[in-house]
User: What shape does this take?
Amino acid sequence: MKTTAVVGLGNMGMGMAQNLLSAGFDVIGYDLRSERGRMLAEQGGRAADSLGDLAGADAVFVMVMTGAQVMDVVGSLRPTLQPGATIIVTATIQPAEARAVEAALAGSGLNLIDSPVSGGQFGAEAGTLTMMVAAEAAVFAANQDVLNAVGEQIFHIGESIGMGQTVKAALQAYIGVTFAGIFESLALGAAAGISGETLYEVFSSTHVGNTPFFKNCAELIMTRKFENTGSHIATMVKDIGISMALARENGLPLFATSAANELFQAGISRFPEGDNWAIVKLLEEFSGVEVEW
Assistant: This one.
C-alpha cells in the first residue's frame, strides 16, 4: 500500500487525510500548527515535524492557501521525495503559478498533478470532492487509487499543467455569482417583509433553488451561523480574485463576476473573520431587517 502525505491540515486537508486513512493508506500529515498534526495522529495517521519527514511518501497532497505557499512547499519537497513520487496540488492557485511549479520540478524525477477541488469542507470530509485533474495520462492512471480515496467526481481535464486551475477559476466565477444572487435575493425578500421560512420554501421548490448548494447556504444564513462553518470568506476572495485575473489575461470582461468580487471584498472588510454567508449581514445593515426563519 502506498504511503501518502497531506501538507496543510486545515478543514480541507484534514478531511482528505481522514479519507486516505479510511481507504487503508499510510498517511503522514504536516501543518505549521502542531495541534493539527496531533489531531491526525489521534485518528491513526502520523504527524510530521517537518517536510523532511515526508521523504518516503509516494504521493503528497498539497492543500495550502496561496501559490506562494505551494511554491515554498514544492521547493522543500523536491530534494526530499524519491524520484517517481507524485506531488498533487489540490490548492486553488493561478494557472500560471501551477505552470511555475511544473518548471520548478523539471529534471527532478518527480511527477506533478494539477488538481484543484470543489466541494468544500463537507466534500473533503465525505470523500465526495470534484477534482479537476491536469496531468500526463500515465501519471493520472498511476494515481487513481489515491485520487479516488478523496474524490467522487474525477475529471481528467488534459495533460497540460495549469488546465485544472483554469477550469477551477471558471467554476469559481460561477460560484461567486451564485452566492451573490442567493445573498441579495434573501435580503431583498426579508427587507420587503417576507419571512425567511417562506422564502426558503418557495426558492427551494424551483429548479434553481432545489439544490444542496442553495439549501445549505440559506439554512446557515437563517440559523445565523456566520463563522466556523468551514467556508471562510477569505478563501472566496482569493479564489474569485484568480477568476478576475484570468479574465484580464484573456481580455474578457466579466460583469456579474466583477460585481460579486466587489461584494466579497466589502464583506471581508466588514467581517474579516466571517464565512461567506456573513455577507448577508452587510446587506441587512442597509434595511435593518435580518433574514431568519
Summary: The beta strands are 3-7, 26-30, 46-47, 59-62, 86-89, 111-114, 117-118, 129-134, 151-158. The chain has a mean pLDDT of 97. The longest helix spans residues 163-191. The longest strand covers residues 151-158.
